[in-house]
Design a protein that fits this description.
Length: 451
Amino acid sequence: MAHRKIPVLIVLALAAGGPFVAAQEKRRLGLEEAVRLALETSHALHGSEMRREAAAAKARETDAARLPALRFGGGYTRLSEVPPFEVTLPFPPLSSLPSKFIVSPNYYNSFTLRLSVQQPLFTGFRLQSAAMMSRELAQAAAHETDGNRAELVFSVATAYWNLVKASELRAVTAENVSLIRAHLRDVDNFREQGLLTTNDVLRVKTQLANAELIDLEAQNGVQMAATLLNSLTGLPLEAGLEPTTPVEAAASEAAALESADLQSLIERAKESHPELRALGARVRASEAGVTAAKSGWLPQAFITGNYYNLRPNPRVMPARDEFYGTWDLGVTISFDVWNWGQTRQQVSQAEAHRAQARDGLSLMEDQVVLEVTQAFLGLRQARQRIAAAESAVGQAEENLRVTTDRFQEGVALSRDVLDAEVLLLQARTTRAQALADRALAAARLRKAVGE
């Protein structure tokens, strides 16, 4: 039988080919703790939360525009000197009366204090629509933050289960190295007894060298998976990690999702998926934007009031160099008779944005249905792979036991034992990957549903 090499591609999917970092004390880390650390340290999530806060503040600002505005101001003005207002008598002056006298003296220092209030009465529904649009955009930002949080949790779960997968693979490759070394000792003993040739020993040594290379690649895969998880959780990139949450912990959750009805999962996703909810809010915001744009075709009305405390006050005649308070109250109405089609173009823009938002929502609904369907079918397929892998491991273990016994009895060749060990390594590797893939599939389906 031709010599059979162990497929290196099994571990290349996990290893990036970098040198393995020297062994160090590893930090024990569970999945829940990894998620907590990621949520606490993620700069991307913090930026998303700040966008949500900004959108919420913008909504409060827009709401405030509908309330009375109170303003206070003051000022000082130095006036240039001008002749005072004088009156000349039209008849000859009497001895006791002057021929001219000043009606109102000039004061060249002017002090102004003003308190104003303005309340919108009717703005063509512009303020109401703007407030509604801001609130919906704030809701969209909140849902997008929820989506970013779910994406981060899924990324951490993916990195964690990949680390578990890499660790399980490393355990398998290390055990395979131990088996081949033990077999090498048996082959050496048989050669010393003259039962095997030197070529048989060299064949086992070659197999051992290949197994040690794959074991090294598996170690690198563990280090790369740990580095990725460290980058997500805010831990030092070079820190070693030991995952403490076994893949069996996700078995019950995976079983519950597998037993669910696909259509019910799709309905749940349509109701709770963060991106769908965010796009729904943006559609409602765009509809309010159309109403706000149409307000330009309607009149605007405001009630205004002012209180003045002036020195001198021009309403007082003759002028006096002292503060004097007066007030006024009025209603202002304005209407754009012609603005060269600006309002029409604004409405057209708003309607285009609304159509774009609706199209985006429809596309996302289709994408969510596809994502849930793929994740659901992938989870069921992962369960089938586990069953097949368990059966293959059992058969490979029995095959290795029988072949080893036959080799000890001298009725089987050394290469038969090597082939049996290769089959067992492949079966155990497939099982380890299938168990981790099931946990990943469950996390993917949970994210697709929006939970």
